[in-house]
Amino acid sequence: MADPHAPRATSSLALDDDRLVAELFTLRDCLRWAASEFHLAGLFHGHGTESPWDEAVALTLGALHLPWNVDPAVLDARLLPMERERIVALVRARVTTRRPLPYLLGEAWFAGLPFDVDERVLIPRSPIAELVESGFAAWFPEEPPARVLDLCTGSGCIGIATALHLPTCEVDLSDISEEALAVARRNIGRHDVGERVRAVHSDLFAALPGRYDLIVSNPPYVDARDLATMPAEFRHEPALALGAGDDGLAIVRRILREARAHLNDHGVLIVEVGNSDHHLEAAFPEVSFLWLDFERGGQGVFALTAEELDAHAASFA
Questions:
Q1: Which 3-state string (H, E, C) describes 136-175?
Q2: What confidence score (pLDDT) does residue 8 get?
Q3: Span 170-194, mean pLDDT?
Q4: Inter-residue contact 112 to 133 (CB < 8 Å)
Q5: Alpha carbon 282 to chain centroid distance?
Q6: What is the C-alpha separation between 179 and 154, in angstroms, rounded?
Q7: What sections of 207-276 are H helices per DSSP?
Q8: Which of 128, 129, 134 is closest to 110 using CA atoms?
Q9: Is the pLDDT of residue 2 over 60?
């Protein structure tokens, strides 16, 4: 039990940036200092990191444009003043504004790939990354899907990563937000997949002609209660991409109702609903959703085949 009379640690961010830069010399110094500040600040870690140390590693390596698997010998390399200044500025911004680190860096990683991100899109963190990396082989063991739809695409990370892992498929990225699609188009260019990937402005399926072999969606699914109590970091993400009514299913219900008309007969629908999974099962107790397991953690992703969507069409109507 902590001693209530013990002196409380004081954040060194009370010092000005010049003083901090003058006291930090190596990457190891910056890592230790950043981790301590993040621990003191009580930050929420859920946008690609899981602890103050993870966050400190991600920030310092990102600030220096170093890969995550950099040679540990670099820890004792002395940093240039401008490099230390950038790290100090990023740590201060992370603590004082509660902006998630990927927004501060302008970049997030998904399925082993980097993507541009800013406050117009959610920060990629879906467990669907594991399905992408496997090429959705559980449903397409012999031939990959020819046409894929990333519905409610945001940054485009799911669809673009799918196109890179499955180099023969064509992918549509769809979103109701033109601002999000601007980021998705930037990522299409960044990964040079414009010949096979296109961004489409659409309210769900409204502007999408034709059918798909695979529809994948990470739509808004946060219920009203969770939305009201989320940590400050989430307030920087677009509310349009998070909240979906009292039970978090306002968009998912529409997807279940409309998806079959846009899915080939052998097709599959995969949707993330996160911790609104219990709301979904309560809303459709007669449907046996296939809930997927993930090696790296994550919950609330289901799969339904076209045949299962047909069988439960009356429930979803």
A1: CCCCCCCCCCCEEEEECCCCCHHHHHHHHHCCCCEEEEEE
A2: 56
A3: 98
A4: yes
A5: 26
A6: 9
A7: 224-229, 250-258
A8: 129
A9: no
